[in-house]
Fold:
Amino acid sequence: MDSSFDAQQTVPTGPLAAHSPTPSPTPTATSTRPSESPEPAGETPAPTVDDATIQAQIERASRSDPALANLDVSTIVEGGRVTIIGSVPSAETKQRVERTIRAIRGVVAVDNQLVVIEATPQ
Structure:
């Protein structure tokens, strides 16, 4: 029995070779001290602002804005997170209070629990 055959397939070249799987890079070990958190390359960590400073800046900003100066609003600052509690006369005032607080350096989050209480017509 004489068995011979001709090759009928050819191996493609060119762009199809790009579809082969590529190995993923092996992670390298980095040494960081426990007190340090790794920062993305090229970025410097933002200096942290303590809660008392944030609270003082909130109070200063509220007093300096005539629309906010006499509101029944309190704030609690914990780890840069500000919770706003109280009542305001309108949704616009509620948004203004939140925008003012978000603009303060060191504020990382705002939980706006203000309640809009519109005046009852007499």
